Amino acid sequence: MTGRGSASRFLGAVLHNGVGRHVRQLQRLQLVFSPVAPDARGARQFVEEAAVDFARRHPDVVLYVSPRRCPAPLLIAEYRECPRGQSRGHPALLPPAPLGAAVNGAVHEELVSSRSCEEIAGLAARLAARSGLDIVRIRKPFHTASPSVQGQWHPFTNKRPGLAARPNK
Amino acid sequence: SSSGCSRLLSGGEGRGDALNPCVIIMLRGKKSSLRAFFFLFSFLFFSFFFFFFFPFPSSLLIPLKNSVFPLSEKPNWDYHAEVQAFSHRLHENFSLDLLKRAFVNPCYIKAEEERRQALGLSQEAVALNLQDNTELWEAGEAFARSYLAQCFEGAYPSLPAEGVAALVGFLSGQELVAHVAQHLAVQELALCARFPVPPPVLHRTFFAVVGALLGSSGPRATGLFVRDFLIPQLIGKDLFEIWEVINPMGLLVEELTKRNMPAPEPRITRQSGVSTVLPVYFVGLYCNKKIIAEGPGETLFAAEEEAARVALRKLYGYTENRRPWDYSKPKQEWAAEKAISSS
């Protein structure tokens, strides 16, 4: 589809993140995996070896580990509240609003079946670095609140004001 | 009868209509299946009207609505861990007792006690051992307001008291603080009688968190916290969007007399399209025959008012190209870090 047919948004940060202090947008990470299924072997290894390390290096992310019967191992990332109305485009073509995210921030699910422990650790680190805004085409790679320092050009800029400043009214 | 069925099938295929009701309702014969179809259709028709026009309790529709309920009622929720993560996420050292107390709102305590009483528990069991956040939010709000007023007086020394008060009032106003609190995930941790948490309660809970920080880390760290989260909300905002000034020309004349300058003389500097439906006039204000500001407008009156506003922005130092706010760490912290890293 062309750019116009699919959803797009402008570059932005939630709550001017980074201007004051940088706050990690990832709030919690849930690893749901089965204790016996063969494709969850990487997930089980991650829990045994790398999960505590990840939690220590990211004290601001809460990591929940749920070994339970599930069809496939999943890594579910929940981000801080971010305004849902940022993507523009036809409503039918926007990324689907995830369940349970009507009030809270974006929820991103990643399938981690048949992935190794290192891949899952890398994936978790990448999710922790994201802002949680929709992954759609970004219209411009820049954004500013003050686009002009010397004053926005208008057709009268740098033109003589007339032969004399005429007396008022 | 078989003859009736064979006629049904030929009827459906003949017309090539996949949704032919006669094919859906395979009854004895075409006539009775048509009758049955009309009964079914009228049932659907009336149920449509019933559901959409007849007032009936919308609680029946709750399972159909998008799932909007607090995270504390979803699986995988550990309050203590979430509070700790909240503290780390904001790069602050909160004392966890004060922080947990900051999230407890009086409406929650009342609602919980009523619920327990309704369940028929004894008096000792009904009373919750929770302190609410009233003192914390009062302290937090007072501190935030005084800190912001100090910041603005230092940054814009020529801004008058009403201007500073307008800026402080905007930044500690209900909508903005509720917006900031929601995006800082205070809503999930706040204990409140209702969900989603209403804006006044969010406003109070945010200032209670500021009060908790004041109790845990002292005024310097709390000042930096207020600076880092509230002052960026001024980005992209103009002074007169926040501070409503009804007579800018009168205010300008006052300011100029304070600085011993004569009253400004307005002159038309440029104009275009005067006899059309969209004229534009540029009016310049001159003091001692030197221009101090120029502003555009659709009518002469509007252009003069805009020129007065431009002059006021220049006088107060709140122009769009002013130096951005300084969010760097204060110098003593840099010195302390250097000392720690070198030792």
UniProtKB/TrEMBL annotation, chain B:
<dbReference type="GO" id="GO:0070877">
    <property type="term" value="C:microprocessor complex"/>
</dbReference>
<keyword id="KW-0472">Membrane</keyword>
<comment type="function">
    <text>Component of the 39S subunit of mitochondrial ribosome. May have a function in the assembly/stability of nascent mitochondrial polypeptides exiting the ribosome.</text>
</comment>
<keyword id="KW-0809">Transit peptide</keyword>
<dbReference type="InterPro" id="IPR036389">
    <property type="entry name" value="RNase_III_sf"/>
</dbReference>
<keyword id="KW-0378">Hydrolase</keyword>
<keyword id="KW-0255">Endonuclease</keyword>
<keyword id="KW-0540">Nuclease</keyword>
<dbReference type="Pfam" id="PF22935">
    <property type="entry name" value="RM44_endonuclase"/>
</dbReference>
<protein>
    <recommendedName>
        <fullName>Large ribosomal subunit protein mL44</fullName>
    </recommendedName>
</protein>
<keyword id="KW-0694">RNA-binding</keyword>
<feature type="domain" description="Large ribosomal subunit protein mL44 endonuclease">
    <location>
        <begin position="78"/>
        <end position="213"/>
    </location>
</feature>
<dbReference type="GO" id="GO:0070125">
    <property type="term" value="P:mitochondrial translational elongation"/>
</dbReference>
<dbReference type="GO" id="GO:0005762">
    <property type="term" value="C:mitochondrial large ribosomal subunit"/>
</dbReference>
<dbReference type="GO" id="GO:0005743">
    <property type="term" value="C:mitochondrial inner membrane"/>
</dbReference>
<dbReference type="GO" id="GO:0004525">
    <property type="term" value="F:ribonuclease III activity"/>
</dbReference>
<dbReference type="GO" id="GO:0003725">
    <property type="term" value="F:double-stranded RNA binding"/>
</dbReference>
<dbReference type="InterPro" id="IPR044444">
    <property type="entry name" value="Ribosomal_mL44_DSRM_metazoa"/>
</dbReference>
<keyword id="KW-0496">Mitochondrion</keyword>
<keyword id="KW-0689">Ribosomal protein</keyword>
<dbReference type="GO" id="GO:0006396">
    <property type="term" value="P:RNA processing"/>
</dbReference>
<keyword id="KW-1133">Transmembrane helix</keyword>
<keyword id="KW-0687">Ribonucleoprotein</keyword>
<feature type="domain" description="Large ribosomal subunit protein mL44 dsRNA binding">
    <location>
        <begin position="243"/>
        <end position="338"/>
    </location>
</feature>
<comment type="similarity">
    <text>Belongs to the ribonuclease III family. Mitochondrion-specific ribosomal protein mL44 subfamily.</text>
</comment>
<dbReference type="InterPro" id="IPR055189">
    <property type="entry name" value="RM44_endonuclase"/>
</dbReference>
<feature type="transmembrane region" description="Helical">
    <location>
        <begin position="36"/>
        <end position="56"/>
    </location>
</feature>
<dbReference type="Pfam" id="PF22892">
    <property type="entry name" value="DSRM_MRPL44"/>
</dbReference>
<keyword id="KW-0812">Transmembrane</keyword>
